[in-house]
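In the design runs reported in the main text, the only information available to the sequence generator was the tokenized backbone. The following block is the verbatim input for one such run; it is reproduced so that readers can re-run the procedure and compare outputs position by position.
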């Protein structure tokens, strides 16, 4: 047997002895919100970017997708970052300032209602994630996405169930997306005050549905959503027209004010 063959056989034997999941590369539940990023950094995969969106389930207003990349040493200093839905509006604004100050790079993509109606919600969401990542000024070594896998990112990626609750970079992206979208909805409220966008942010609350029935949809409504398309006289839309996970027309307005 040649020397090269002996070395190859020895390497194969050594790899066979390694555990299937190396303990140094396994996030633990006690590791906190930065556990995944620290594990990836130990594996040489840094920086890590997180991607998340806001407004997926709203029946009015844009879909906003954010990508945020961090160096591992900057993650430890994040104090106010959490899943955007778990924060008050004031806490999200503080967390937003913290994220943009500490991030290695961040980028936001805004997808309007007309584009959502034309391409479909899911297609628009996936395209927005790709565009948000491509807009970063750095090249991440790994990407964490919230909810579902995204093909064609060009870098290794992991889709995480409730990623904004378990990974700091995804939580940061959720904060940036949510704060950006809330600001846009407050601007839309000035243009279309009859709908109360500043309060419910375009989700299907009782007050929003009452205003929609009284005034009909405005150009910022998503006509492909069933509760909008029906009132517009175009028949039932294709999308469900519900809110973010857990948020639907059965919620009171106060539940969506934050």
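Verbatim output:
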């Amino acid at each position: 047997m040649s020397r090269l063959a002996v070395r190859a056989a020895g390497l194969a034997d050594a790899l066979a002895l390694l555990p299937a999941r190396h303990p140094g590369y396994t996030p633990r539940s006690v590791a906190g919100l930065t556990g995944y990023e620290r594990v990836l950094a130990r594996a040489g995969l840094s920086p890590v970017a997180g991607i998340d969106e806001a407004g997926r389930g709203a029946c009015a207003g844009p879909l906003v997708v954010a990508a945020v990349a961090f160096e591992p040493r900057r993650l430890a200093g994040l104090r106010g970052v959490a899943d955007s839905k778990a924060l008050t509006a004031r806490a999200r604004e503080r967390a937003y300032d913290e994220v943009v100050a500490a991030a290695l790079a961040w980028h936001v993509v805004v997808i309007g209602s007309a584009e959502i109606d034309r391409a479909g919600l899911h297609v628009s969401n996936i395209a927005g994630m790709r565009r948000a990542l491509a807009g970063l000024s750095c090249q991440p070594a790994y990407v964490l996405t919230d909810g579902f896998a995204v093909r064609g990112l060009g870098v290794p990626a992991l889709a995480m169930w409730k990623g904004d609750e378990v990974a700091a970079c995804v939580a940061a992206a959720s904060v940036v997306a949510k704060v950006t979208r809330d600001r846009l909805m407050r601007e839309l409220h000035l243009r279309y005050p009859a709908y109360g966008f500043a309060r419910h942010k375009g989700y299907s609350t009782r007050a929003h549905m009452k205003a929609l029935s009284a005034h009909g949809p405005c150009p910022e409504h998503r006509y492909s959503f069933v509760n909008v398309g029906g009132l517009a006289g175009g028949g039932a839309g294709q999308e469900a027209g519900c809110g973010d996970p857990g948020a639907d027309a059965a919620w009171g307005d106060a539940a969506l004010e934050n």
